[in-house]
Amino acid sequence: MRQSERRPITPSTGYGSQTTSPDQYNYLIGPGDQVQIFVWRNPEVSQSITVRPDGKISTPLVEDLQASGKTPTQLARDLEKALETYIRQPIVTVIVAGGIGPYSEQIRVVGQATKPQAIAYKRKMTLLDVMIAVGGLTEFADGNKAKVVRIVDGEQKEYLARVDDLLNDGDIDANVDMLPGDILIIPESWF
């Protein structure tokens, strides 16, 4: 690519989950999730498979079916439609085992956490749950200057997170709800 053809690179935090409240959350399947597919009265078609990095699955009789971004029930209905060609009135159940979900639904923790990582969102997850999952703060963290980056109505918003008050002082008022797609940024202290 020539210099004149370069396009500016813009940061992407716009994964934007559709969940705006912990009570509205429905698990969405993502790449790497292990799904168990049960087809009633058809054990030869039932199996456990992993969702490919491209978000699709392949099963006996059905190839390259999009799974990522769907609830298990939606995937089951799609499989039923695809299997109708081969099986009369198939009844399909999909169970997710050990999933982390699509990137848009994961909570990412970066900066001065003991173990920065992406975490699978679980319904009604709070800041305390996230901090337990990442092992707390490092000794260099400035926990009270942490922030949660969230996409709200298509716009990026930042919220103060008082992690130090929550973990070290037991201030339960600092324990806020987390939503799918949140990014928790924990800066380093400047002493």
Can you tell me about this structure?
The protein is built from three helices and ten strands. It is of the alpha+beta class and 191 residues long. It has two domains: 72 residues, wza like domain (wza like fold, 2-Layer Sandwich), CATH 3.30.1950; 81 residues, Roll (Outer membrane lipoprotein wza fold like). A five-stranded mixed sheet has the order 7-6-10-8-9, with helices on one face. Strands 2-1-5 form a three-stranded antiparallel sheet, with helices on one face. It has a two-stranded antiparallel ribbon with strand order 3-4. The relative contact order is 0.18.
CATH class of the largest domain: Alpha Beta
Shape: elongated
CATH topology of the largest domain, what is it called?
A: Outer membrane lipoprotein wza fold like
Radius of gyration: 21 Å
Order of helices and strands: EEEEHEEEHEEHE
User: How does CATH name the architecture of the largest domain?
Assistant: Roll
- Helix fraction? 10-25%
Strand order of the largest sheet: 7-6-10-8-9
The major β-sheet equals: 5 strands, mixed
Strand content: 25-35%
- What is the fourth-level CATH superfamily of the largest domain? Outer membrane lipoprotein wza domain like
What is the CA-CA span between the terminal residues?
A: 45 Å
Number of strands: 10
Going by helix content, strand content and strand pairing, the class is alpha+beta
User: If you average the pLDDT, what whole number results?
Assistant: 89
Low-confidence stretches: 1-15
Number of helices in the DSSP assignment: 3
Number of domains: 2
